[in-house]
Design goal:
about 400 residues; alpha+beta; two-stranded parallel sheet; 12 helices; 12 strands; about 15% strand; disordered N terminus; poly(A) RNA polymerase activity; cytoplasm; RNA binding; transferase
């Protein structure tokens, strides 16, 4: 993996740790928010990473490194990219060889959360289950031949969650080149443990950045120029389809229109493999809209229309009725979004029409088909369309 040392010289793609600290200390409201009956105010910053790493090592689980991952790392590298970031995603490199280790990692994290509750809270009355229900949005464990990792996502009502990912092996670590960056925080954590002098813009350690895309300089140029590039999207869960449409709405452009058209088909195919049921598709889209457009609700309609266009153009793996069902679902969500934004005009005087099923025209079917004029003036009539009152 190509990597560069990050420092303070911007011309050499070097970055000061001050920017990393700015994100990691929650200056942009990255603190999780708890349920009303649970004391809020968890201070999940770099100190949480320090405590988790220390506790794991005391339990005999070495932590090889701690990394800031994905869009948050991209935001540190280039804050004007337009990419934004939804989560504060931290990766802990650990060995997860047995089921017991998976469970131990989870127990250690939950135990650490108790330590970050405000002073005066009676921790004896807060059970692990209560803490989990109040603060943990998602628990994921993946254990197969190529991937061994677990995820603990700490919820935040504003949309910026804190995600702790414990990775033994992970075959695919990025979706697109612009979110393929990782910043290794070990020197920063060591500074916090050993230095008595507070960190400042003129006094801070150096961290290391990497691009999982493979070429750091190329990925950085994509980030600066808002270019969409990826490879083998069929390896990504969901095909990267939803993220791809999000990038399009944010003004990113494909590196190659011709190549991206081909990749779109792989994105759609993988998405419908992972989310084959219409109910699963609905839940996935609703969750994505809720978590990725906080403060940008006005972009949801454009996003859905972009998704509708891509699915319509590039879906080749579905039966005709399945494809129409998905397109109708996306269109329905788009109408709902407009309604929530009070953009839909009054429909008191609007007449809607529907087309009867083919069997309606059969001789033995007791149904009257009337001849009506079209809604708009036209030289041609449409005898098979009925008014829906």
């Amino acid at each position: 993996v190509y990597f560069m040392v990050l420092g303070v010289i911007l011309a050499s793609c070097l970055l000061s740790n001050w920017a990393v600290t700015h994100i990691s200390t929650g200056n942009e409201s990255c603190h999780p928010q708890a349920a009303p009956r649970i004391p809020s105010g968890l201070s999940l910053t770099l100190s949480l990473s320090q405590v988790v790493r220390s506790r794991l090592e005391k339990k005999g689980i070495p932590v090889h490194n701690v990394r800031l991952n994905g869009s948050a790392a991209s935001h540190v590298l280039h804050q004007d990219s337009g990419l934004g970031y939804k989560d504060l995603d931290l990766i802990f490199g650990v060995d997860l060889k047995t089921e017991d280790v998976f469970q131990l990692v989870k127990d250690v994290v939950m135990d650490c959360l108790l330590d970050f509750l405000p002073e005066g809270v009676n921790k004896d009355k807060i059970t692990p289950m209560t803490l989990k229900e109040a603060y943990v949005q998602k628990l994921v464990k993946v254990c197969n031949e190529t991937d061994r990792w677990s995820l603990i996502s700490l919820s935040n009502n504003s949309g910026k969650n804190v995600e702790l990912k414990f990775v033994d092996s992970l075959r695919r670590q990025f979706e697109f080149s612009v979110d393929s960056f990782q910043i290794i925080l070990d020197s920063l954590l060591l500074f916090g443990e050993c230095s008595e002098t507070p960190m400042a813009e003129s006094f801070h350690p150096t961290v290391t950045g990497e691009s999982m895309y493979g070429d750091f300089e190329e990925a950085m140029e994509h980030l600066r120029s808002r270019v969409i590039a990826t490879r083998n999207p069929e390896e990504i869960r969901g095909g990267g389809l939803l993220k791809y449409c999000n990038l399009l709405v944010r003004g990113f452009k494909p590196k190659s229109e011709v190549d991206m058209k081909a990749l779109q088909r792989y994105m759609c195919s993988r998405f419908f493999i992972d989310f084959s049921d219409i109910g699963e598709q609905l839940r996935k889209l609703e969750c994505y809209l809720q978590s990725h457009f906080v403060g940008m609700e006005s972009n949801r309609y454009d996003y859905l229309m972009t998704l509708h266009r891509v699915v319509n153009e590039s879906t080749v793996c579905l039966m005709g009725h399945e494809r129409r069902q998905t397109l109708n679902l996306i269109a329905m969500l788009a109408v709902r979004v407009l309604a929530e934004q009070n953009i839909i005009p009054t429909v008191t005087n609007v007449t809607c029409y529907y087309q009867p099923a083919p069997y309606v025209s059969e001789i033995n079917f007791n149904y009257y088909v009337t001849h009506v004029q079209p809604f708009l003036p036209c030289n041609q009539s449409y005898p098979t369309w009925l008014p829906c009152n």
